[in-house]
Amino acid sequence: MRVAVIDDESIFRMQLKMMVEKLSASKEIPLEVEEFSSGPDFISVLSERRFDIVFMDIFMPNMDGIEAAKKLREMTERTFLIFMTASEGHYPDAFSLHAFDYVTKPFTIERINQVLTEIIEHTPMDAAFIKLSAGPIDEKVYLKDIISVTTDGHYLEINKDDGTTSRVRLTSGEFLDLAGADKRFIMVNRGIIINMDFIHHLEGGDIYMDDKSIFPISARKVSEISQQIKDYQFSNR
Questions:
Q1: Number of H-type helices and E-type strands within the chain
Q2: Domain 2-123 sits in CATH 3.30.70.20
Q3: Domain ranges of the chain
């Protein structure tokens, strides 16, 4: 999951980043934190990348947090938005923008833990989806339905359990960024990503999938990847 921290005061950005990274390690959920010192700086990158969670300070010069949040909401409704402030006078504005929560400064790690735990509970794995642009039409694809993702030139072939394939202009890294913290997906070889829920069995250095497809594991990483798959299967029995 990508996390953005927007605050004009570096001390609060640093403290929150450290808290989130500590909780990320303790919960074994990958949370990648990026800091921004102003609303315009944050808004300027939204055309390039998506954030799953946004901690937004309300009182900032040039563009306050409410205005920055309005611009965020013009681009996406899916982001979990948490406002931060030293006062409590902006609840109406905050919740009109579908804020998930409201954190009063100075915040504690216990409070941030509460917020992140609630976000994780509100993000069921089976409801997670990505939007793929194929020509003029955006296709909504649930992550649970993707069996494998393979590279074909500058495109990805996204193979689904209904037997269909979507061809989109993405890199493997961009797909993993879209999938966020979904632990089902693993890159087993260059340009080959699989959903571990659809593994039928392992045999030597090959992975046999439920749809009869077979993928080779990178020769240098057979032991490492085989163990990752076994660990995943054991924890999800």
A1: 7, 15
A2: no
A3: 2-123, 131-235
